[in-house]
Each structure stands twice: as structure tokens, then as C-alpha cells.
């Protein structure tokens, strides 16, 4: 058949190149700069191309050793040779030559001698050690993923979660400097922080990673010409190598990443912590503390702590799922969890120190000059509303003001009102309502308990009175229903 094809080509006017033609069937052939092996089903770079790249590296090293600089064309030649091997090595060719490309871009012209950065020298060393070992790609490779991650970042913080891991959510807040970084930097940092937080879960796994930032996908696969982003991408790559994590990152539209998007915008408003001074006082009085059960990366004062979400430093998440009586712990919980914390401590006979905040009066802490201006707040709040809105709520507010004044509450605590005092007021309303109902059902004249409740109209008075079941049934009996 080979001879038949050869004769047909010649008869058609074509002149086959004898040196480049292979007329006998073979299982291994060099084609378009690559070696195809149908027996092992692999593809590799020919030895002569590998040797050429190695020789170029040696020339670069020799030039640096003698002159501390190297011709920019020599470096560009090496980068081009490596990138041409991407059919076998993949995106690693571009990723592990980015620092070299950055150094090349800094040269003012092509006749310039450049000084290579430390990162570029490290990349040269990488190719010198690994070029031969990674020169093989299996064509029948069909990867399957054992972990699935979604990540996102906002101006508030970052988040991520592993689909099949219980409590596998990661969350953190940005610092002041981090919050003003570019969206690509924040999304890339989110990937790095989630990697570190879930390192135990992801180690030795092939991970499918989803993000709604296309730039992040490109940077993780190929690197970036921006040094700041390339540094971060290199940290991600090095971390994956250290923990044998293979990441296949893919872009998805924002509407398919809503959970991670929601988590990245969480603000822990009831988060608070202790100063190092207070921690030292506690340790001096009660001794060494083994663990902080309620902390976050930015307020943790002990090396071992539990957090609400996974992060790179915490020992675990969800303190309520742990056994508290095994370690002497520090309990600094959010105020909203105090009841639940005390209940679990009693149930498990926990040992440790619990710290509860005592919030002082804000007005008492004000300087005298500012304290005199507190009465201006009610006027400002009233003027900020439309007249119709103010009139609608004025009667209810006047009732609150009258009650507060009658109970010696200062004008500065009437508006804005203190939560605890207003809670007492609501309790008094409940008592007034139940008292009015009781009076009405026992035959007390409306005029008397109307004055007692300080209601100005019958409509206001009737809103607090509930008719007894007997009186309601009497209406049905009278109507013959």
C-alpha cells in the first residue's frame, strides 16, 4: 500500500522528500518536532531538542558566572525553546518561564545584557533538574476528580467550600491594605488561602476548582507578567507541589457561584477579642491555657484555637461539636452565644476561663463638651423624616416619652433609646394591656381604666382590650347562630 501511495504521488507530479518520508509502517515516529509512540501511547520531545535547551541553559549560567549578566536574546531563545515544548509539558512551560519573561521585558533593546532576578535563576534551576524527567505525556490519560472547590472574593473578605466535606467552609476578612487590592489579586489570594485552610482535606487529591474570575484561571495555569500576581501564583503552585495537590481550575459565571459569593460577604458583627494585656493577666492568675474555643485569625491570642470557619491557622471549626472537658480552655464567645456556651460548659463539666464583656455607658465616656450636644440627636432624627411619617408615629413616640419621663429617664436616653430601658417600657405596655382587659371583663367603667392607661381616645383604649370568651359567645347566642 505504501508503494502504491508513493507511485500515485509521483504520477500526480509531486516529488516526495526522501529524508523526511517514511514509507514503512512504524509504531514510533518523529513528527512536527515531537515523538509519537503508538505502542506506549505517549508523546515526547526529541532528544536533540532537549539537548539544545540544556546547552542554552549552560551558556546562560556560564555568562552569569563570568559577567553577572547575560544577553537578552539568549534568555529569549531559551524561553522560546521551552514554550515550544508545551505540547508535551503543558502550561508548566509558560508558568515556569514567567519570571524570565518579566526580566526580558525590562530590557530597553535586543542588544542589551540583563541581570536575572533570583526568581529567574530558580526557574532556570528547575528546568535543569526536571526537563528530562517531565518529557513524557500519556495520550490516554483520563483524570477523575476527587474534590470539588468553589471560591470567591469580595471587598469584604474571601470564601470557599469543598462540596462533599462536612463543615468544609472557609471564610476570612481582608485587612485594610488587602481590601483595596485589585479584584484579580483578591480572587487569587482567595484560592491560596482556601488551599492552605483545607490542606489536610485536599492533600494527595485531584481537585476541580471553580471561580468566577477568568483572569485567575489564566494566571494559575500560565502565570502573569505582573510580578505581584506571579509571586502569588508561584506560591499556589509550590503549595500544590508540597501537598501533592493537582488543581484543574475552571471559570463559571457568577450566578453559578452564589454560595461562595454569599459567604465572602459575611461580616461577623458580634466578633470581639481580648487584648494581650488581659490574656497575660488571665495566664498569671490561672496558669497555662490549652485552647481558645472561640477565635478567628485576626483576634486569636493562643496558638491553638477553634474558629467559626476553616482558615489556615485554626485547629478546628464549630467548637460546639468538640469535647470541652479534655482541655483547659479560654471561652470568649460572641454575646449571642453566651447562654448556649454556659449550658454546654455545665453539661460537660468543662474547665477553663469564660470572659463576658461589660459594655459601659457610651454617653458617660464622652468629653463634657460633646455630652452637651447629645440632645441634638433627637432633633436631627426627626428632621430626617418626612412630615407625614413623623405625624404617623408621633402619638406612639409621645406615649414612650411620657412613660420615660415619669420613670426618671433622662432626655438623652429617650431618643435614641437604650435597648434595656425600652424593653422595660414594652413590658409595661404588656402589663397595661392585660390589666385593661381584666378591668373591662370585671365591669370597671371605661372612663376609669382609660384614665389609668393614659389613653386619649376610645380607639387607642379599645386596641388594648380583649373581649372575654363569654362575651364573644353571647353575641352568637343573641344572633341565634
Topology:
Blueprint: H1 2-11, E1 28-31, E2 34-37, E3 42-44, H2 47-67, E4 70-71, H3 72-83, H4 86-89, H5 92-95, H6 98-105, E5 113-114, H7 118-130, E6 137-138, E7 147-153, E8 157-162, E9 169-173, H8 176-179, H9 183-197, H10 199-202, E10 206-211, H11 214-222, H12 227-242, E11 246-251, H13 258-264, H14 276-286, E12 291-292, E13 306-307, E14 316-317, E15 328-331, H15 338-348, E16 351-354, H16 368-371, H17 376-383, H18 387-406, H19 419-441, H20 446-452, H21 458-462, H22 469-478
Parallel strand pairs: 7-10, 10-11, 12-15, 13-14, 15-16
Antiparallel strand pairs: 1-2, 2-3, 3-6, 4-5, 7-8, 8-9
Polypeptide structure, described:
Helix content is 47%, strand content 13%. The chain is of the alpha/beta class. The chain folds into 4 domains: 47-138, no CATH class; 147-264, Nucleotidyltransferase, domain 5; 276-354; 380-474, no CATH class. The strands form 5 sheets. Strands 9-8-7-10-11 form a 5-stranded mixed beta sheet, with helices on both faces. Strands 1-2-3-6 form a 4-stranded antiparallel beta sheet. Strands 12-15-16 form a 3-stranded parallel beta sheet, with no helix packed on it. Strand 7 (147-153) and strand 8 form a beta hairpin. The longest helix is centred in the C-terminal third of the chain and has 23 residues, at 419-441. The protein is elongated, with a radius of gyration of 37 Å.
Amino acid at each position: 500500500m505504501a508503494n502504491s501511495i508513493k507511485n500515485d504521488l509521483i504520477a500526480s507530479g509531486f516529488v516526495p522528500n526522501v529524508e523526511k518520508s517514511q514509507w514503512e509502517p512504524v509504531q514510533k515516529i518523529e513528527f512536527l518536532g515531537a515523538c509519537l509512540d503508538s505502542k506506549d501511547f505517549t508523546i515526547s520531545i526529541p532528544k536533540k531538542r532537549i539537548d539544545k535547551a540544556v546547552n542554552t541553559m549552560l551558556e546562560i549560567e556560564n555568562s552569569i558566572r563570568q559577567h553577572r549578566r547575560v544577553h537578552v536574546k539568549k534568555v529569549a531563545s531559551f524561553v522560546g525553546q521551552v514554550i515550544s515544548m508545551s505540547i508535551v509539558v503543558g502550561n508548566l512551560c509558560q508558568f515556569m518561564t514567567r519570571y524570565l519573561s518579566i526580566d526580558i521585558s525590562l530590557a530597553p533593546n535586543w542588544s542589551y545584557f540583563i541581570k536575572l532576578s533570583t526568581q529567574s535563576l530558580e526557574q532556570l534551576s528547575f528546568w535543569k533538574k526536571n526537563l528530562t524527567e517531565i518529557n513524557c505525556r500519556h495520550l490516554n490519560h483520563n483524570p477523575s476528580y476527587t474534590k470539588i472547590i468553589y471560591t470567591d472574593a469580595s471587598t469584604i473578605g474571601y470564601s470557599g467550600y469543598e462540596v462533599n466535606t462536612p463543615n468544609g467552609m472557609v471564610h476570612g476578612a481582608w485587612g485594610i491594605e488587602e481590601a483595596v487590592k485589585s479584584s484579580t489579586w483578591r480572587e487569587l489570594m482567595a484560592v491560596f488561602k482556601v488551599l492552605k485552610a483545607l490542606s489536610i482535606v485536599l492533600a494527595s487529591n485531584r481537585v476541580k476548582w471553580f471561580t468566577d474570575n477568568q483572569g485567575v484561571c489564566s494566571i494559575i495555569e500560565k502565570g502573569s507578567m505582573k510580578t505581584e500576581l506571579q509571586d502569588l501564583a508561584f506560591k499556589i503552585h509550590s503549595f500544590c507541589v508540597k501537598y501533592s495537590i493537582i488543581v484543574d481550575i475552571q471559570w463559571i459565571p457568577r450566578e453559578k457561584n452564589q454560595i461562595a459569593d454569599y459567604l465572602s460577604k459575611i461580616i461577623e458583627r458580634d466578633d470581639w477579642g481580648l487584648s494581650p494585656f488581659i490574656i497575660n493577666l488571665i495566664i498569671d492568675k490561672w496558669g497555662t491555657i490549652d485552647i481558645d474555643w472561640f477565635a478567628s485569625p485576626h483576634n486569636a491570642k493562643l496558638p491553638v484555637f477553634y474558629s467559626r470557619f476553616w482558615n489556615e491557622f485554626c485547629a478546628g471549626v464549630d467548637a460546639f461539636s468538640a469535647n470541652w472537658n479534655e482541655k483547659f480552655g479560654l471561652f470568649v464567645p460572641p454575646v449571642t452565644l453566651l447562654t448556649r456556651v454556659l449550658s454546654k460548659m455545665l453539661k460537660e463539666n468543662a474547665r477553663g476561663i469564660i470572659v463576658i464583656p461589660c459594655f459601659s455607658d457610651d454617653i458617660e465616656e464622652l468629653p463634657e463638651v460633646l455630652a452637651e450636644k447629645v440632645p441634638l440627636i433627637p432633633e436631627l432624627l426627626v428632621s430626617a423624616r418626612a412630615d407625614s411619617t413623623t405625624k404617623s408615629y408621633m402619638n406612639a413616640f409621645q406615649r414612650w416619652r411620657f412613660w420615660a419621663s415619669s420613670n426618671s429617664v433622662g432626655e438623652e436616653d429617650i431618643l435614641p433609646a437604650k435597648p434595656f430601658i425600652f424593653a422595660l417600657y414594652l413590658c409595661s405596655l404588656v402589663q397595661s394591656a392585660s390589666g385593661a382587659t381584666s378591668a373591662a371583663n370585671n365591669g370597671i367603667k371605661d372612663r376609669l381604666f382609660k384614665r389609668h392607661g393614659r389613653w386619649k381616645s376610645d380607639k387607642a383604649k379599645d386596641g388594648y382590650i380583649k373581649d372575654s370568651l363569654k362575651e364573644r359567645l353571647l353575641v352568637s347566642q343573641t344572633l341565634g347562630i
